[in-house]
Amino acid sequence: MSTVNLTWVQTCSMFNQGGRSRSLSTFNLNLYHPLKKTPFSIQTPKQKRPTSPFSSISAVLTEQEAVKEGDEEKSIFNFKSYMVQKANSVNQALDSAVLLRDPIMIHESMRYSLLAGGKRVRPMLCLSACELVGGKESVAMPAACAVEMIHTMSLIHDDLPCMDNDDLRRGKPTNHKVFGEDVAVLAGDALLAFAFEHMAVSTVGVPAAKIVRAIGELAKSIGSEGLVAGQVVDIDSEGLANVGLEQLEFIHLHKTGALLEASVVLGAILGGGTDEEVEKLRSFARCIGLLFQVVDDILDVTKSSQELGKTAGKDLVADKVTYPRLMGIDKSREFAEQLNTEAKQHLSGFDPIKAAPLIALANYIAYRQN
């Protein structure tokens, strides 16, 4: 997988005009494909990639708005500008939602981690999915904030001595290093509770039934069948020699993928998507949820703590099973490429222009460097 930065141009070509590209299950390498429960292989650079209805959409991180190739004018999506705009909107909404009030210490702790930066990938996925199905940003913003609050809670708790025992997060000392373990636990609890309150109270212009449905999706994604399930199995798997790809899939799809999936599904529900659209976006999100963690596993062993903004190599130290450990770095990178391609296949029925943000976000997840 080639590395990229904020000067690249990534043109999407994922589909045959008449249907899906070659199924992963038809390849001949005996590697496990978690999402399909089948063997899979990797398309080599020499193989011709299929053409795509999205081939006219480029995620271009420049100030250009259009380019011409021959007689065909190609629409350009400015991903850098999009990310900046969405991140600013989300940060302002988070700042306004969690105010500094009494008791001061708990709110300082909540705000310390919530406003510490971060890529805001989950809120962007929520907002992009909402807009893809015809909704407005304002409709999904409370849900976008809610998933970021819950994500922040998971980071605070994950860093605790009783869990991963980490000292660095987003380039800063972890919450418990600043406020103590007791306050850090309570700050995470408070963010979790407030996420649901904020979503229920602040979502406007959406039928109550859809708000309830979205809240149910979010709750399930983080409970004993979601994030918590993945975390428990992850802890239970530390140091075991017989953990295979199927168990690793379970960990990643639940611990990381479930909240990413919920982010997209919430946006689609609140934006007024049909059941078919919601399920197509769920499939897209499931692929990028696993993709996110595969890339995270790779970065953990290839980047420094300074580059990552968190402690590098901690999975190795904790003797955790990872994709690089089971498959090697090269095959893990190839698997990430396949997941990225498959994720975008699930967007084939949507307007390519409206789908451009999600295409670009999938590429961003695949090629991120921290």
UniProtKB/TrEMBL annotation:
Belongs to the FPP/GGPP synthase family. NCBIfam families: FPPsyn. GO terms for molecular function: geranylgeranyl diphosphate synthase activity; metal ion binding. Transmembrane segments: none annotated. Gene3D superfamilies: Farnesyl Diphosphate Synthase. Its cofactor is Mg(2+). Pathway: Isoprenoid biosynthesis; geranylgeranyl diphosphate biosynthesis; geranylgeranyl diphosphate from farnesyl diphosphate and isopentenyl diphosphate: step 1/1; Isoprenoid biosynthesis; farnesyl diphosphate biosynthesis; farnesyl diphosphate from geranyl diphosphate and isopentenyl diphosphate: step 1/1; Isoprenoid biosynthesis; geranyl diphosphate biosynthesis; geranyl diphosphate from dimethylallyl diphosphate and isopentenyl diphosphate: step 1/1. GO terms for cellular component: cytoplasm. It holds the Pfam family polyprenyl_synt. The keyword Translocase does not apply. One of its GO terms (biological process) is carotenoid biosynthetic process. This is Geranylgeranyl pyrophosphate synthase 1 GPPLsu. Keywords: Carotenoid biosynthesis, Isoprene biosynthesis, Magnesium, Metal-binding, Transferase. The keyword Coiled coil does not apply.
